[in-house]
Amino acid sequence: MRGAHPDAGGSRFPLAARALRGAMPAGTRTRLPVVPGSTAAAQPTARATTRAPRNWALYLFLILLPLQNITAGYLPNIGGGFNFLNVMFLISLFTAMAQGGKLAPNEPVNTWTTVYAVYMTLSLLVGFHFVDDPTNHFNQLKDHMVGLFVVYVVQMSVRDWNGVRMVVFATLLPLPYIAKVVWNQHRSVASTHYTDDLRISGTFALLGANEFAAFCVTVAVVLFALLLACRLSRKWKIVLMGGIACMILGVLYAYSRTAYISLIMGMVVVIMVWRGRLKLILPLCLAVVIAPAVLPKSVVERFDSTTVEEGKRDESTELRIEYWKIAWANFLRNPVVGTGYHTFHHREINPYGRDTHNLYIRTLSEGGVFGAITLLGILLAVLRTAMREVREARTGTWRYALALGMMGAWVSMVIANLFGDRFTYYPVIAYFWAYMGLVMKARHLPPEDSSR
């Protein structure tokens, strides 16, 4: 037919069209029109799509992170302060680098993380001047950096939305086992009324009940946000509900008053910031009314025992206030750079030989004004990034729900550190940084299929 293009009908007669293309001069060849839905339409997409590499070492590292009872009790200790988890972190990092992984560009959290890490290293050197036996300080800083640098490894390991889901799933896998350990420990000490003997640390064999509860709070708040704000399949919803139940069990039976408050506040923030919050006003009111009646009596007694009135404080509260006074006096004597990383518990500085039980006052005491600025910088960078993503992300997506969860987790973490250190122990904080890494990388991934 006159005026017909040589490639017309190419989708119906592909062999003839290929022969015509081969006979045409290279400069005059054009792409064949493709009928939508045809086999030919799917071929370019299939050729263009390549399977993103998976960092399986990272997934194993994340699964083992909260299981101190296994990693410390059964896995070999390499010596020199290095353990199996340190090796797994390095393998995860090198795997991500070998796969060509890259950090999310132009993210303030990455910048402040580097600044914080550099200053903590310098602060380690400062501490050698103030204490006589800083033997373990390097190992403490090394473990702190392992938890912090998870934010880098996760960013470098995630290439697509399946990678995001794989990281979240890896953090879900150990939760049923953790709940089993918690329940077994609770049954061995269970009592109707609260005593300090009831407090358990779950799988955190080398840490205490407060640290274990803080870990449970972080995971519970982020999973709650995913369940609430992300369009998910029924299987994902069931898995998330199971994970939340496991973590709430851990919070309840750790009997940490700070964890109770931070969990409530974190979930309230998630609900209040969520764009569909009006749907939960009635259920939230009912939960507030019903909760005291269904909670174990020992949990209610532990919560009610909190008071800051002088003359009515328990011994733990009295001691913490005394430590804070000593830390503040130490800051006033050394206001610029403090006395150095991990020094406050030394008797040269604190006659009680204990920690401050307050991250912020301890940072002032050990790091001075510069240390406080770096800590404040990294905390504010996390909050601003999460707020930006909540504002810009599409409702119902993983990007939006993860950012929403990090806003709640940030509030929980900030509250928890008022009464202890929930920032430097890597089993406690590593999942926080893993989720933060996902929030930062999500901004730079292709638009997601929100139906999954």
From TrEMBL:
One of its GO terms (cellular component) is membrane. One of its GO terms (molecular function) is ligase activity. Residues 244-375 form the O-antigen ligase-related domain. It is a multi-pass membrane protein. InterPro entries: O-antigen_ligase-rel_domated (IPR007016), WaaL-like (IPR051533). Keywords: Ligase, Membrane, Transmembrane, Transmembrane helix. The chain crosses the membrane at residues 56-75, 81-100, 112-131, 166-183, 203-229, 236-253, 281-300, 368-386, 398-419, 425-442. It is found in: Membrane. This is O-antigen ligase domain-containing protein. It comes from Lysobacter soli. The lineage of its organism: Bacteria, Pseudomonadati, Pseudomonadota, Gammaproteobacteria, Lysobacterales.
